[in-house]
Amino acid sequence: MRPHPYKIFLFCTGFLFLIRIGFSQGFWTKKTNYANGTSSGGYLIYVDEGVGFSIGTKGYIGTGQYTAGFNPTSNPLWFWSWDQGTNTWTQIANFAGPGRMSGIAFTINGRGYVGTGIDVNNVIYNDLWEYNPGTNTWTAKANCPVSTSDAVGFAVGNYGYITGNTNLYRYSPASNTWTYMSAFPAAYRNAASAFSIGTKGYVGIGNNGTTFQDFWEWDSGTNTWTAKANFPISLYNAASFSIGTMGYIGTGDTCDLCVSREFWGWDQTSNTWMQLPYYPGAKRESAVAFSIGCKGYLGVSDEYDYQGHTFQDYYEYTPDIPHLANAGDDTLICKGGSVQLAAVTGTGYRYSWTPATGLSNDTIYNPVASPADTTQYILTVTTPQGCTGKDTVIVNVGNISVSVLPKTSYFCAGTADTLIAAANAAATYSWSPAAGLSCATCAKTGASPGGPTDYIVTATSIAGGCISKDTAHVLVATGKAGAGVTICPGDSTTISASGGITYSWSPSATLINPNTATPIAHPTMPTNYTVTVTTGTCVFKDSIFVNVSNNLVVDAGRDTTICPGKNVTLSASGGKKYSWIPTTGLSNPNIFNPVATPAVTTNYIVNITSGGCSAKDSVLVTVDSLPKAAAGNDTVICKGASVNLSASGGGTYLWSPSAGLTCSTCAGTSATPIATTKYIVTVKDATGCSNKDSMTVTVNNLPTANAGSDVTIKLGQSVTLNGSGGINYLWLPGNELSDPKIANPIATPTNTTVYILVVADANNCLNEDTVTVTVIKPSCVGSDEDLFVANIFSPNGDGKNDVLQLKGNGITNVYWAIYDRWGNLLFESTDQSQGWDGTKKGSPMGTDTYVYYIKATCIKTNSELRMKGNVTLMR
Predict the structure, then answer these.
(1) N or C terminus: fewer CB in 10 A for the chain?
(2) pLDDT band for position 323 (50/70/90)?
(3) Bridge-partner residues for 240, per DSSP?
(4) What's the CA gap between 271 and 19, in Å, rounded?
């Protein structure tokens, strides 16, 4: 062994647990010696300052040094794996790198990694090797950024980390690269210890001539360091591992040549250290440790105290982890009550509560407990890795019972009684109602109610607030007579008294059963009856006055109004017998509530009798007349047209059917029916009487208008239009038609024209159609055909064909003239638009044939055009 403190840095893959703050001691169990206790070359196979890691349910230990005397002599390459299930060691492939001691090791995603360290010749290494348990092979990986024999390492997630106590570097198996992360925040040191919990790594203690107790947390999420609670003692060259949220550090040196069996645990949740049972093997330094599931493993190495001891022993540490099972605080419920228990939860945890009595479900973390009596429940929590923890919770059941005495008491009005409540546990009391009590919150109270009262006492236990109730029935003797009455001569009545056990009435001559609470009185004159009421020792007197008088008060009900044919139920009161007149329209004239159905307004008189008393009253039933509903006269419309309807005779209106109406509840409305429809209007007056009337809107179909097919003509030509579908016709526009009011006028349009034909049938319903007359206007080509004059015109002043016009397109330099048959000039013009109106100097010319002469120039050909012809003037 070298004379300087070397250390081993070991890490476990770990499992995340949710635990309760605080933990208990746990225990150690001896396992099979390293390498199954075998030897090689006359020497025990052991590891001093070697490394270890775990993968699944197996741990791996190797490298390190042999010692002869007190000096290292060699660095063996062997590696052994230990199976947690069989507790046996198996030699695996030798380490593929150079032999070494004081290296680092960690596990990432089912692969082990070993690197750095120093050999017996003081050669320092920075290489890194990966072990694949599936192929049992070692593979060289990227070298660490630093060569060191003083590094510590740990794994977080998919990365491994190493710090040479100056800088922290991250290794990525995916990219086989190293990345600088941050500087270690504390003093440089050797022989430190490290482990990881969840997403955080932990580095601390150690020695560089000065022994350190500081302890640091590195957060992979923020890449920051945070100081945590100092390690409780001076220690270095210690082994370490983690289980769940617990880190463990043990064995090592407390000073030079002071080898230790100390073992401590650190709780991540509370940031506290607790001393645990000493390591059971011999004291040692630079031991190898790892964790598998819920177990930690520590052993091998040597005793660095110049004794020359080396060790193959290996021990398993089982944490006693009741922090897995937190059943909550003890609680108190009342008899018949319940409480929901709540254990700390974790992914995949299994729960078992015993006893199951009183639990809604004994295999969930939060059952509802309803025990009949105080019960201690034991919670056992098992993690997916098989770790178990237990805790207990006591559900105390409070059971309070209260009783009140006397249950029933009976005393005279004006005196007091005493009520006493007693509970079987310390309690507070509350009486209800509080009226008539001397103390509403005392166990003992005086009661003097004004009448019979049930007093309820509520006892609430001081411990737990449980409630119990009881009732005291307090009966009060009051001795009262009933209210006075008035009867008719010859009648009898029952009088009454209450509050007693025996009764005595006087005078008794006009009473039947005068010694009862309810005698029958039949006085012939007004009489005051006195009753003596006795209950035990209580005696009361009271009186009741019976008046004899014709005191009937009759009421025939309120006057009412009904509609013709309707009925109303009459209702009279005040007597025993009833007689109504007249009987006409009544369902039964001898009852108090006959149904009246009069045909006309009727005043009904009711006569009421009771004993010797009688009285009369009347009620007027007015029969309202029906409103005079008027829907208006029948009417006729053409299809698509609307007509205004107008009703009268009432206050509200309802038209039916409502289809095609602008308002079905208005007196006046607009109707647009699509077919002949009979409209019924219901008219209602202010009293609710209704009547009906109807009117019919006849809808005539529209005629089928046909203006004929579209046609094309040349300028100056005429065409006969052919309309059909009605008996009356109107063509628009009509200025170039022979007669716009006939079915087939002659059209001579000068331009393309759309003619609208409006057709009317015998019902004067209108419809329309259109026809287009296309007029072709030829261009001038240099011939007589470029000019046109009609061969007939009729200047009779009817606005149709009254002027003879010269037609032509593309012409200029126009001259034209009109002559009679003898050659006399009647008209001449150089304006193409100026026509001849059939006169000479304002005098109309007669019906005859006249000659026209035309001269013009064709613009397109610049040629002269000449034309002459005859035209007939018609008068």
Answers:
(1) C
(2) low
(3) 249
(4) 13
> Residues with Cβ < 8 Å from 135, sequence gap 6 or more?
none
Cβ pair 280, 26 in contact under 8 A? no
Q: Are strands 766-776 and 787-789 parallel, antiparallel or unpaired?
A: unpaired
Query: Is it the case that residue 735 has pLDDT exceeding 50?
Result: yes
> Do residues 390 and 321 touch, judged by C-beta distance below 8 A?
no
For 294, list phi and psi in degrees, rounded to 5. -95, 15
Per-residue model confidence (pLDDT) at position 388: 75
> Is 75 a residue whose pLDDT tops 90?
no
Taking CA atoms, 446 is separated from 404, 414, 423, in Å, by: 13, 12, 18
Count of Cβ atoms closer than 10 Å to residue 90 Cβ = 12
As beta bridge partners, residue 148 has none
Q: Which residues, 6 or more positions from 590, have their beta carbon under 8 angstroms from its beta carbon?
A: 577, 578, 579, 580
Total residue count of the chain as it appears in this document: 875
- Which DSSP string corresponds to 791-805? SEE--SSSSSS-SB-
Residue 766 and residue 768: Cα distance in Å, rounded?
7
Q: 573: which DSSP letter?
A: B
Label residues 299-333 b or e (16+ Cβ within 10 Å = b).
bbbbbbbeeeebbbbbbbbebebbbbbbbbeeebb
Tell me if 457 sits within 8 A of 472, measured CB to CB: yes
Adjacent-strand bridge partners of 201: 196, 218
Residue 414: per-residue pLDDT: 66
Query: Nearest CA to 484 among 497, 471, 474?
Result: 497
**CA dist., res. 393 & res. 375, Å (int):** 8
| Backbone torsions φ then ψ of 400, nearest 5 degrees | -110, 140
Cα–Cα distance, 495 to 510 (Å, whole number): 12
Gap between the Cα atoms of 35 and 32, Å rounded: 8
Gap between the Cα atoms of 559 and 204, Å rounded: 106
SS3 346: coil
Q: How far apart are CA 483 and CA 495, in angstroms?
A: 8
Query: Which residue in 249, 413, 369 sits closest to 317, CA to CA?
Result: 249
Check residues 385 and 873 and name the one with the higher pLDDT.
873
Q: Is the pLDDT of residue 855 over 90?
A: yes
Cβ(35)–Cβ(271) below 8 Å: no
User: Position 638: which residue type?
Assistant: C
Residues 6+ apart with CB under 8 A from 824: none
Q: Which two tokens stand for residue 195?
A: 């482990």
Q: What pLDDT is recorded for position 236?
A: 92
Q: What gap in Å lies between CA 870 and CA 792, rounded to an integer? A: 9
Cβ-Cβ contacts under 8 Å for 365 (sequence gap 6 or more): 342, 343, 344, 345, 349, 351
614-642 average pLDDT score: 91
Q: What residue has token string 């499992």?
A: 15
Interatomic CA distance for residues 682 and 631, integer angstroms = 9
Task: Cis check for the bond before 582: say yes or no (omega within 30 of 0).
Answer: yes
- The H or E element that residue 756 is part of is strand 753-760
C-alpha distances (whole Å) from 162 to each of 285, 555, 614, 846 are 21, 110, 120, 135
Count other Cβ atoms within 10 Å, centred on residue 375. 17
- Greater confidence (418 vs 201) lies with 201
* pLDDT tier, 247 (very low <50, low <70, confident <90, very high otherwise): very high
- Identify whether 433 is preceded by a cis peptide bond (ω within 30 of 0): yes
- pLDDT bucket at 304, cuts 50 / 70 / 90: low
Residue 467 and residue 400 in contact, taking contact as beta carbons nearer than 8 Å: yes
Question: What confidence tens digit (pLDDT) does each residue in 746-755 have?
Answer: 998 888 999 9
CA nearest to 412, candidates 354, 352, 365, 474: 474
Evaluate whether 772 touches 753 at the Cβ level (below 8 Å). yes
Percent helix, percent strand, percent coil in the chain, to nearest 5: 0, 50, 50
Instruction: Single out the residue of 52, 166, 48, 173 nearest to residue 114, CA to CA.
Output: 52
